[in-house]
Amino acid sequence: MFTRGAALTPGQVDAKYLTRINYAFANIQGGRMVLGAPADAQNFAQLTALRNSNPRLTVLVSVGGWLWSTNFSEMALTAESRRVFEESVMVFLTQYDLDGLDIDWEYPGLPGAGHPFCAEDKENFTALVRELRERFDARTRKTGQRLYLTIAMGAGDDVIAHTEMRKVQRYVDTVNLMTYDYYEAGSDPTTGHHAPLYADPTDPKKASSDETVRAYEKAGVPAEKILLGVPFYGREWGEVPEQNHGLFQVGKVVPGAYAPYSAITTNMLVTGAGFTRYWDDAAKAPYLYNAEKHIFVSYEDPESLGVKCKYVREHKLGGVMFWEYFGDPDGKLLQAIDEGLGDGNSKF
Fold it and tell me: Model pTM greater than 0.90?
């Protein structure tokens, strides 16, 4: 996943290791899909030009997201309202020479960040992706250009309960699992791994990417359509006691704290910063603790990504997707994914 509000500069994106870019986000206004920012048109042109140097690259637009899912429920409510949206999608993809659409409705039948929702969302979500697939296939038959349809899905059981994944998966190319943010300082009073591969036996929530994958498979999604989501950022807590190096301890929000991997490597994983790296072998996850400042940080690194890529290969998943590109400007995490999936698996 890739988000950008400002204009890209030439060479800012290296497509060497990428097979798909999901540009976040387009918005929904008046029932139609619209640009999310004035610079988007220019950015689409730069990104689609990258296909010249990497022919396997596809460029999609993501619509919605955590904050812009407000109008999904109303848009999807009737066949007519969906038709208006779907027609706007087709115009949008043609205008900006894009390879498809990623639907990031957070979440059907649930409030997400306080969005309107209704009981009909469950069936309407299915209808929306079915109708989009029909339109995409019709366009492909006419032009010969394949159009991709993907969805971003949350890790909670309640998300699965409010969707018809066995039906939905028939119409989408991939289900992009947001297997991160299992722990957040703003909603969890205790620290924890925000993107563990497996559940630590002492984890009060027993959260894990593996459990989410298994839940979606049980709900009817084939393994080959599942993309495992990984974060290019960390989660931070303050006022955390030193017990267990801060893991699964009471903590508080650090105002303004946001830790992209680039900040972790330059500000925390350096001599004199006071942070010590630890490894939870049960969860296959790294974490940092600063004993002087009582700060705990959960994050992803090349070692944990190597283990996750092995998991993707062994479980025959479709590949890996990440949020988001600019959290790793030096490409260290992206290179780790490329090396981990170096047998031809997809990397998104």
Answer: yes
